[in-house]
Amino acid sequence: MATPRLGEIAPDFEATTTEGPIRFHDWKDASWAVLFSHPADFTPVCTTELGRVAALEDEWAKRDVKVLAVSVDPIEQHEEWKSDIEEVSGATVGYPIIADDSRQVSELYDMIHPGEGDTSGVRSVFVIDPSNKVRLSLTYPKSVGRNFDEILRAVDALQLTDRGPFSTPADWREGQKVIVAPTVSTADARERFGADAVDEVKPYLRYTSAPA
């Protein structure tokens, strides 16, 4: 199965989770979603990752993002492992963890890479928008923990650029200036945002303040 590509509708599925059964599109209910896989329960890197996601609960909510973890381990094992995650992180795991024993979800999202050594998932991340389109995907090897601050930053950038003719520069953070889209001329940008609000570095590289 090919990896879902940017702009495509994220595959829908039914699954058993630590928060009960779900159908993915109904569960996300026109919210943003971050679907991320982890290789195995009771493993060190995964424990830190799921704990970090739990600790960021308020940040996900502020952005109207629902988070959903998945691995090929069974539901009983997920339930047992949650207490370890909460003990290590000091945060409650309030989001669902999919028990993908059948590998249905992992195969739909191409999360199992045989070259990585076994039939567990690699560290895949999919950011999915309210219309169920895939907007970002990342894949990390099993040995490298993810930076969830970067995933939040990317969600901020996606949500901002959906609101206007903007792009974000390298290393952009919320509150910093954005790039005027190439489809907008400098003259039109200055008329729209104000003559003093557009900084032309090159004819194709113009900065302006992000909208409030």
UniProtKB/TrEMBL annotation:
InterPro entries (UniProt xref): AhpC/TSA, Peroxiredoxin, Peroxiredoxin_AhpC-typ, Peroxiredoxin_C, PRX_1cys, Thioredoxin-like_sf, Thioredoxin_domain
Domain Thioredoxin: where?
A: 4-160
Q: Oxidoreductase as a keyword?
A: yes
Q: Pfam families under this entry?
A: 1-cysPrx_C (PF10417), AhpC-TSA (PF00578)
Q: Which domain of life is it from?
A: Bacteria
Instruction: Please describe what this protein does.
Output: Thiol-specific peroxidase that catalyzes the reduction of hydrogen peroxide and organic hydroperoxides to water and alcohols, respectively. Plays a role in cell protection against oxidative stress by detoxifying peroxides.
Q: What is the recorded name of this protein?
A: Antioxidant protein
Q: Which organism is it from?
A: Terrabacter aerolatus
Q: What is the lineage of its organism?
A: Bacteria, Bacillati, Actinomycetota, Actinomycetes, Micrococcales
